[in-house]
Design brief:
heterodimer; A: 211 residues; alpha/beta; two-stranded antiparallel ribbon; B: 91 residues; mainly alpha; 4 helices; 0% strand
Chain lengths: 211, 91
């Protein structure tokens, strides 16, 4: 999403204007202008036009905070029928989760993954990623190997035990053949990527794992 | 790739963060001469490792090469040599 619509809507002094950041991709949008999800819940939430995610699978505390801060005129939309979403095709794109403790890798990685036509969510640690895997059920998880709190290789093992997601381990360490062997055999990874990230390799890996 | 990447924005972000990274490395380098040199060297090694992975991704392979050199030498090299490596990181 370009910054122009945000700046334009922000300039309009209106009680209905409610600029929020998407909790999944951090894109800025005016919630009063956003389409709303058609989830079967009492608390339908706006759909991010950038990543296609709504907030219905986010923690209850986060949804409550959104409702408490949003103008009542916006929340009235909950009683209206859900509109037909123009971004429906995007919702069908495979969801990719990128896990890295480094903000710059998350930024460029998620940007590239979206440009490749996938939906993308990010997590900055292993525990956060595990919580998101349970709720969002991504098709592919790309994780850095060396992270604080939980190593990416342990994260791979946990994900393999609890979900069907394909896991790609990404690190500068895995350039030597025996490291690649370790990633596949010991940790059960479905792929690996070397850093610096080769975008062509990223594309081919995602195409292979989501075919 | 279906659409061009916003390289201008991405590189501007990287360059801004690079300056912060170099400042952090210089601060860590100062600690290498202190009493907790082992911890400081380990921290410096991680900082080099992180930069090596990021710089090439953003289209700066030369910085990746310098950072890899720093990562390899962080544990044992002298402070002057490490300072030279940190100072050679730039765009």
């Amino acid at each position: 999403m370009s910054t122009q619509p945000f700046e334009a809507s922000f300039a309009i002094i209106s009680p209905d204007t409610y600029v929020t950041a998407c909790p999944s991709c951090a894109a800025l949008a005016d919630a009063s202008q956003s389409p709303w999800c058609d989830c079967v819940t009492k608390e339908r939430t706006p759909v991010c036009e950038s990543c296609g995610q709504c907030r219905c699978r986010r923690p209850a505390k986060e949804r409550l905070e959104f409702r408490m801060r949003a103008p009542k005129s916006i929340l009235g939309l909950f009683r209206q029928p859900a509109p037909q979403l123009a971004i429906a095709p995007a919702l069908k794109a495979p969801l990719v989760m990128l896990v890295d403790d480094d903000e710059e890798i998350r930024l460029i990685g998620s940007h590239v993954i979206r440009k490749l036509g996938y939906r993308c969510i990010t997590a900055q640690s292993g525990p956060e990623a595990l919580a998101l895997v349970a709720g969002e059920q991504p098709a592919v998880v790309i994780t850095d190997a060396l992270m604080p709190k939980m190593d990416g290789r342990d994260l791979c093992r946990f994900i393999k035990r609890s979900s069907d997601a394909k896991v790609v381990i990404m690190t500068a360490l895995y350039t030597a053949p025996h490291y690649k062997y370790e990633a596949f055999k010991t940790y059960g990874a479905d792929g690996y990527l070397a850093k610096p990230i080769d975008f062509a390799a990223l594309q081919s890996t995602l195409e292979r794992l989501t075919a | 790739m279906s659409a061009a990447l916003d390289w201008t924005l991405l590189r501007a972000h990287f360059e801004k963060r690079l300056a912060e990274r170099v400042m952090l490395m210089e601060a860590t380098l100062a600690e290498v001469e202190g009493s907790d040199a082992i911890r400081a060297r380990a921290a410096l090694e991680r900082q080099f490792h992180s930069l090596a992975g990021i710089a090439g991704t953003y289209g700066y392979p030369d910085i990746t090469d310098v950072a890899r050199e720093g990562e390899l030498r962080a544990a044992l090299a002298g402070v002057a040599e490490l300072r030279g490596i940190v100072e050679s990181i730039g765009i």
